[in-house]
Amino acid sequence: MINPLDHSQSINELPEPDGQAKSHSERLISLIKAECDHNGGAISFGRYMALALYEPESGYYAAGLQKFGEAGDFITAPEISPLFSRCVARQCAQVLPLLDNPVILEIGAGSGVMATDILLELESLNQLPDRYLILEISTYLRQKQKEVIESKAAHLFDRVEWLNALPDKPIQAVVLANEVLDAMPVESFQTTDDGVKQLFVEVVEDGVNAIYKDAESSVSDAVNTIEQRAEMKFELQYQSEFNPTLDAWIASVADCLEKGIVLLIDYGYPVSEYYHPQRHMGTLICHYQHRAHADPFWYPGLQDITAFVDFSAVAYAAVDAGLEVRGYTTQAAFLMASGIAQLHQEAVTDEVSSQINLSQQIKTLTLPSEMGERFKVMALGKNIDEPLQGFLIQDFRSRL
């Protein structure tokens, strides 16, 4: 018997949810239990994560719970400062003139702040796309996005169109995915004397319980592939995870792109760093009311569950799907190459508090101890040959 992770010390420090929130979680647990019963008593961790985050009625992203900003569970870069989105817009502005009927497609637009700031910046640069498409499956988030765009850029609202799925016909576009890959369900594994084990989930009287079983062949194959790419062998009792749907997701994005780039922004590592011996407990992390912890089974449906991104796996999937890896760098280097220093200078006023706020925003976005190096930016391209400006200062593709 392999003992699942014990994170009781960290979860004891979390705020206790109120009765309504607990009832919400209990409804989701009942749905998870029903699926476990239907599948012989347990489901894979990946399936559990998919239900916890995306179950249509009670999943974390599908339900009407506050997620972004000070009143939510975490703050993303676009909410830290509009300078982030303005830099992304400048990378878009370089590519959009190269396209016929140029479109921006944002996948998972969060609160809608990034879409709003990008549209306003592109307007100031006279590079507005014909359409700004948003693929959003959450009804709650879709409504939130509409409210934000209407309140801050009402004159551009007619350019925005919401989608339930990727376009049927190939488009010429800049595709944006900010903190999308980290929220994709992952499978968790552990290496043992008896081979690779896979994390499964069952529901017992006192809640959700994690158990390890013999891995499915697809999981064992994935672990072998990771070892080959990283040119190493996992030590015994090594725990980590991988994204089993990454290849299919990248392929679907590639299929809908006739010409343009895909810009991926997320926290992650190349394969050799992701599966480093010192990272032997994996990269799963959960967020609840701006507190990070590592227990994905604490009140399902009330917290975000994420895993770092293996950018080497993204690169392999992209090449297999007919895309080129056009750049890979840190968030700090991307923002600097995209003109954040100039934008900062233009935004400075004589008001001391404004200067302090701007400086703090820049530090959060660019310092290595904050988001500057932990977050990476990767560009995938199709039928685009021009060097991308966001990767001209530093490009770490050789590390992939």
**Uncertain segments:** 1-9
**What is the count of β-strands?**
16
CATH class: Alpha Beta
Overall structural class, as computed from helix and strand content, comes to alpha/beta
Radius of gyration: 21 Å
Could you characterize what this model shows?
The protein has helices at 8-11, 19-38, 45-54, 77-80, 82-95, 113-124, 139-152, 217-230, 246-255, 271-274, 311-320, 331-337, 340-347, 352-366, and strands spanning 43-44, 103-107, 131-135, 160-163, 171-178, 187-192, 195-204, 207-214, 239-242, 257-269, 285-288, 291-293, 304-306, 309-310, 324-330, 375-382. It has one domain (18-74, 166-400): Rossmann fold (3-Layer(aba) Sandwich), CATH 3.40.50.12710. Helix content is 36%, strand content 23%. α5 (82-95) crosses α6 (113-124) and α9 (246-255) packs across α11. Strands 2, 3, 4, 5, 10, 14, 15 and 16 form an eight-stranded mixed beta sheet that branches. Strands 1, 6, 7, 8 and 9 form a five-stranded antiparallel beta sheet that branches. A three-stranded antiparallel beta sheet has the order 12-11-13. It contains 14 helices and 16 strands. By secondary structure, it is α/β, with parallel strands linked by helices.
